[in-house]
Write a sequence for this structure.
């Protein structure tokens, strides 16, 4: 599975959009980009995933560059409850499931 | 509905002792995963089950670690002769057959080895 690079930490003002970048320059054609987040003292929580098209759900939007070497997770109106560590993960999709390989993630602090 | 539950939430033990950590996945989920997370690090994969069988145990650090899922539901992670380096939060996750992209995590068990 391809390696990902994320900034260690970011701040965002409450109510503003939070844009979390992820570099995955060695991604291969059959690998998807997944995002999870982990609020303090809780288990990780799935947010969104995509292959090459931009994706949106009730939690966030995922923008993947045309060359697929990087992506951005967007929280459109960040709240204090969005303060968490955000993990960008790249892996092949497997209909039998499969492990997630977490990096260090980005610690997002949403400030009032 | 009920999420993934893990018991105990906290476990303190002494070096050399044996511990068992339990995971109750979401009902009907076929895949079950164990991860461990050290302070300041992302979760690290240990083992995953598809049904009753271990589909991938490549993350188990050594033969002191063992996990079972005898009936394809509840799983137990067993650690023999615990060491101080085993101290971590042990996370369990499950996913349904029809949505293998999403893993639902429990709150974890914090293991402290004195």
């Amino acid at each position: 599975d391809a390696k990902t690079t994320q900034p260690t930490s970011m701040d965002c003002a409450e109510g503003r959009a939070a844009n979390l970048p992820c570099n995955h320059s060695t991604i291969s054609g059959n690998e998807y980009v997944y995002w999870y987040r982990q609020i303090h003292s809780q288990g990780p929580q799935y947010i969104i995933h995509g292959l090459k098209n931009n994706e949106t759900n009730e939690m966030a939007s995922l923008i993947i560059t045309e060359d697929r070497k990087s992506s951005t997770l967007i929280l459109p109106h960040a709240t204090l409850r969005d303060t968490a560590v955000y993990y960008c993960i790249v892996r092949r999709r497997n209909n039998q499931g499969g492990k997630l390989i977490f990096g260090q993630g980005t610690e997002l602090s949403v400030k009032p | 509905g009920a999420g993934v539950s893990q018991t105990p939430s906290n476990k303190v033990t002494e070096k050399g002792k044996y511990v068992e950590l339990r995971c109750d996945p979401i009902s009907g989920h076929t895949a079950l995963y164990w991860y461990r997370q050290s302070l300041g690090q992302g979760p690290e994969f240990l083992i995953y089950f598809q049904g009753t069988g271990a589909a991938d145990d490549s993350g188990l650090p050594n033969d002191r670690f063992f996990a079972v899922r005898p009936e394809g539901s509840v799983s137990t992670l067993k650690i023999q002769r615990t060491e101080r380096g085993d101290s971590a939060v042990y996370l369990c996750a499950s996913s349904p057959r029809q949505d293998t992209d999403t893993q639902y995590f429990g709150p974890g068990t914090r293991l402290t080895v004195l």
About this structure: The mean pLDDT of chain A is 93. Chain A touches chain B through 24 residues (CB under 8 Å). The first strand of chain A starts at residue 9 and ends at 13.
